[in-house]
Every structure is written in structure tokens, then in C-alpha cells.
Write a structure and sequence with these properties.
Layout lengths: L3 H4 L5 H4 L6 H21 L5 H16 L5 H8 L3 H13 L3 E5 L7 E5 L1 H10 L1 H10 L3 H20 L1
Antiparallel strand pairs: 1-2
Helix pairs in contact: 3-8
Length: about 160
């Protein structure tokens, strides 16, 4: 096993345990701050942030001409069924999507956008642009940062 001081760049235990030195805290704080910036933008659409994420996946699927399974949306958004099911129910009650059970296997549920769900897409197109403007992040920086975060996520999911 390697010497702990070489793995930590020579940092002492006090530095290692400082809150501001924690990658997890930086990611947590950024996540909370960005989500709070989305809140007023999504309020105009009467969507919560998790609902917005579901709608993004559904708009992509609709554009591709597919009807995703609930399980595929859960995997894509990394949400368990206990979180996803009530979220989908609320979107369905609002008339934005419909759920349909497979005739071959009733455990399989697919989702489709309604006309109202499709029309919301047009109203949502300015959300990402407005968010980047608020954050003062240019498109190139956003692409670079998103790539780094995806690489980190990929590494963590493989580990």
C-alpha cells in the first residue's frame, strides 16, 4: 500500500478534513446553487427541476419518434421508481404525458408526450440560455465543464 502522504500531495489531516477542501461539498453546493437558479425559470413553466429533467428526456424521445419505458427514464436520470412514479403521476395529471402498459408484459410502462407536453417544449427552449446568462458562463466553458463532470461521473459509476 502506498504512503498516504504521497496520495494526498503531502497535505496533513487538518487540511484533508477541511470542508472547503472536499470535492463532494463543492459539488453539493454547486448543485444546490444551480437548482435554485432554475427554480424561477421553471416556475414560468410550472415545473419542478426533477419534472423538467423528465420532460427533457421525453422531448428527446419524441423528437426521435420513440416512446421510452419508465425504467429507461429512471436509469437515464438515475432515479429510483419510488421517486419517479409520483413525479410521472403529477405530470400525467397535468396533461403533459400519458403512460401506457404493454399488452405483452404489464410490468412494462411506456411514456408519450401529449400535445400540451409537446407545446411546452417551445416555451422551455430559452431556459438553458437564460440560465447560462445568469451564471455568466460562456458556451465553451459550459461544454468543457459538462465534459469534465461527465468524465467524473463515468469514472465513479465504473468504480
Amino acid at each position: 500500500m502506498s504512503d498516504p502522504s504521497t496520495r494526498t500531495g503531502g497535505a496533513d489531516s487538518k487540511e484533508l478534513l477541511a470542508l472547503d477542501n472536499q470535492l463532494c461539498f463543492a459539488l453539493y453546493a454547486v448543485n444546490r446553487a444551480i437548482t435554485s437558479r432554475y427554480r424561477p425559470l421553471l416556475a414560468e413553466l410550472d415545473l419542478t427541476y426533477p419534472q423538467y429533467l423528465v420532460m427533457l428526456v421525453l422531448w428527446e424521445s419524441d423528437e426521435a419518434g420513440t416512446k421510452p419505458r419508465v425504467s429507461a427514464i429512471g436509469e437515464r436520470l438515475r432515479l429510483d421508481s419510488g421517486t419517479l412514479t409520483p413525479l410521472l403521476r403529477r405530470l400525467e395529471q397535468r396533461g403533459l404525458l400519458s403512460r401506457q402498459r404493454s399488452r405483452e408484459d404489464e410490468r412494462v410502462v411506456t411514456l408519450a408526450l401529449t400535445e400540451e407536453g409537446r407545446s411546452m417544449r417551445e416555451r422551455a427552449t430559452d431556459v438553458p440560455v437564460r440560465l447560462l446568462c445568469e451564471l455568466g458562463v460562456g458556451p465553451e466553458d459550459a461544454v468543457r465543464l459538462r465534459g469534465e463532470l461527465r468524465d467524473l461521473l463515468s469514472h465513479l459509476e465504473r468504480a
